[in-house]
Write a structure and sequence with these properties.
It is a single chain. The protein is of the alpha+beta class. It has 2 domains: about 45 residues; about 70 residues, no CATH class. The protein has 5 helices and 6 strands.
Length: about 120
């Protein structure tokens, strides 16, 4: 089976923008082992594209932040997790891109630049 056909099967696995378990089972039962692996990989990628992962340093800003991200990424599911190591700011993972706006990331970049540009003698 060609990749284009597998992608069509992945799209056919959804009902009203949600993965339909009955359709997935029916499609999976009709595929060869090799095609099944490609199909599962395609499903995982499709599900990943539907979600936005957000890491914030404090749980107290979840409600406000979630509304902001829902407006920024309409039609996508927002998953927020708490990461105390971020200190301030946040990290957003959308598709294969990671946007890190945290104080920890800035400090790590600063320390790396200092280590790279100045010798310890």
């Amino acid at each position: 089976m060609r990749k284009k056909q597998i992608n069509q099967l992945v799209l056919a696995s959804y009902t009203k923008n949600a993965l339909d378990d009955k359709k997935v089972a029916k499609i999976a039962n009709s595929l060869s082992r090799k095609d099944l692996k490609v199909y599962i990989r395609g499903l995982k990628l499709a599900e990943k594209k539907k979600k936005i992962y957000v890491a914030l340093p404090s749980a107290s800003v979840y409600n406000t932040s979630k509304k902001i991200f829902i407006n920024l990424f309409p039609g996508r599911q927002i998953e927020i997790e708490e990461d105390k190591l971020l200190m301030l700011g946040g990290r957003v993972m959308a598709d294969d891109m990671v946007y890190d706006f945290s104080l920890k990331n800035r400090l790590d970049d600063f320390l790396a630049a200092v280590e790279q540009n100045y010798d310890e003698e």
